[in-house]
Amino acid sequence: MILSAGLRAFVCAEPIDMRKSIDGLAALVAPLLGRDVFSGGVFVFVGKRGDKVKLLVWDRHGFWLLYKRLERGRFASPRGLTAHELPMADVLLWLEGIDLKHTRRFAVVDAQQVA
User: Could you give phi then psi for residue 10, rounded to 5 degrees?
Assistant: First the structure.
């Protein structure tokens, strides 16, 4: 699956010209996100108006480019998502319109054995 839960996502804080295609976005990964475009991560780019998103993924054979345009509303600001890599589950929630600043997760349990 293209967007499996095991993938890590990297969100670009700067708004991007949504006319850019695969090559244009791939060229921005290293300078804007400090990552290797062929690393297998998902690179998320948001348009200037906040109603369009493109996801760029390398899958060993070529690039996938996923594009979502909202018919109404805007995505929550990606600024809070750009500090570090994110689990793909968080990106999928964000793409569904959930503002991750107002959510919380269960605490991570460091289990050593089954009781």
Answer: -130, 120
pLDDT digits (tens, 9 = 90+) for 63-104: 999 999 999 999 887 776 766 788 888 888 888 888 777 777
Of 101, 76, 87, 95, residue with least CA distance to 9: 87
Summarised one tens digit per residue, pLDDT across range 41-55 is 999 999 999 999 999
Reported for 75-82, long-range contacts at CB under 8 A and 24+ positions apart, including other chains, are 75/46, 75/50, 75/51, 76/100, 76/101, 77/50, 78/11, 78/12, 78/13, 78/44, 78/46, 79/13, 81/11, 81/44, 82/11, 82/12, 82/13
pLDDT by residue (tens digit) across 10-25? Answer: 999 889 999 999 999 9
Domain range annotation of the chain: 8-102
For 97, half-sphere exposure in the C-beta direction (CA atoms, 13 angstrom radius) is: 7
Token pair in block for residue 36: 């290797």
* Distance from C-alpha of 65 to C-alpha of 57, rounded to nearest angstrom: 7
